[in-house]
Write a structure and sequence with these properties.
It contains 9 helices and 14 strands. It is α+β, with helices and mostly antiparallel strands. It has 2 domains: about 150 residues, Peptide Methionine Sulfoxide Reductase, Chain A (2-Layer Sandwich), CATH 3.30.1060.10; about 150 residues, GAF domain (Beta-Lactamase), CATH 3.30.450.40. The longest helix has 16 residues. The chain binds methionine sulfoxide.
Length: about 325
């Protein structure tokens, strides 16, 4: 087992997030890298002790490599925000990765560099050796388990996704049939997350009759997207390369988040109730074999949290 100390804003929500991630064995909330010895919560709350609210995460590196854990951590913070996460402000809510094993620095540094490369402003996240850590008193341990309606700066969905991904892995096991795997993935997503429409389009051969299906115009090497396992109302059956949101995700080889489908040029409306959408490519080795498509009947349902965890989810397939 290994340990790492992660400061991600208010430690109630941060701990609740980490404890649901597969490979995390134990968590403990406390105060890291401050000055006053043995601080109380009330002292730290004055924001004069130099401590960061942190979570000591014990994890199994075989199940959860450190670089993945740090990426999971980044998913749950605003990495550009200095001393403020959600509505919580103060140096005690600063973000940081504090390592007790010097060998972890290189691994963490690589993730920081990778994330920095995709951002226009400098990261506000510390990366430092752990100087000290004092556990918080028992009231604060597993706070959101004891107080399910307690305050939390993180969105509820961020707690659901890690469990969903790990449960899906167990549910699918080593079943070799791709359609069976996609079917249960669509069902679990629908059941757990309550989305309006969840399903897959699979890369397959264009209709040999050459019939036009309305959305099937361009193909890629004789391939187009064909409706696969889904949960929800009936949907269009074939989508061309680059057409609609699904064809765009396929062509551009990236997750596409659409806050308002009316604003997306070429969006294919299977249901007039669909308001926002996310499409995530499913890769096999380096090739896209399908896309996961999720629709919501509300505007702006999906953001970077959904994109991150759904990309994790499709890796299980
Ligand atoms: N809206 C999708 C088509 C599929 S339905 O949402 C189920 C698109 O534009 O690709």
């Amino acid at each position: 087992m290994k340990e790492i100390y992660l400061a991600g804003g208010c430690f109630w929500g941060a701990e609740h997030y980490f404890r649901n991630i597969e490979g995390v064995v134990d968590t403990e909330v406390g105060f890291a890298n401050g000055d006053t010895p043995s601080p109380t919560y009330e002292q730290v709350y004055t924001d004069t002790t130099g401590y960061a609210e942190s979570v000591r995460v014990i994890y199994n590196p075989d199940a959860l490599p450190l670089d993945e854990l740090i990426k999971d951590f980044f998913c749950a913070i605003d990495p550009l925000s200095l001393n403020k996460q959600g509505e919580d402000e103060g140096t005690r809510y600063r973000t940081g990765v504090y390592y007790s094993d010097p060998a972890d620095l290189d691994i963490a540094r690589k993730v920081f560099d990778e994330i920095q490369a995709g951002l226009a402003a400098p990261l506000a996240v510390e990366l430092e050796p752990l100087r000290n850590f004092y556990p918080a008193d028992g009231r604060h341990q597993d706070y959101l388990v004891k107080n399910p309606d307690g305050y939390c700066h993180l969105p509820l969905k961020i707690f659901r996704y890690p469990r969903l991904v790990s449960d899906l892995g167990h549910l699918l096991g080593d079943e070799p049939d791709f359609i069976a795997r996609l079917s249960n993935a669509a069902a679990l997503l629908k059941e757990r997350m309550g989305f309006f429409w969840t399903g897959f389009y699979i890369v397959g051969d264009v209709d040999p009759s050459g019939a036009s299906h309305g959305h099937g115009a361009p193909s890629e090497n004789g391939k187009e997207l064909i409706l696969g396992p889904f949960q929800g109302s009936f949907a269009c059956m074939r989508i061309g390369y680059g057409s609609g949101v699904c064809g765009t995700a396929w062509k551009e080889r990236r997750t596409v988040v659409v806050p308002d489908v009316e604003e997306f040029p070429g969006h294919i409306a299977c249901s007039s109730l669909s308001k926002s959408e996310i499409v995530v490519p499913v890769f096999k080795e380096n090739e896209i074999v399908a896309v996961l498509d999720i629709d919501s009947d509300e505007l702006a349902t999906f953001d970077s949290v959904d994109a991150f965890w759904l990309e994790r989810l499709v890796r299980v397939l």
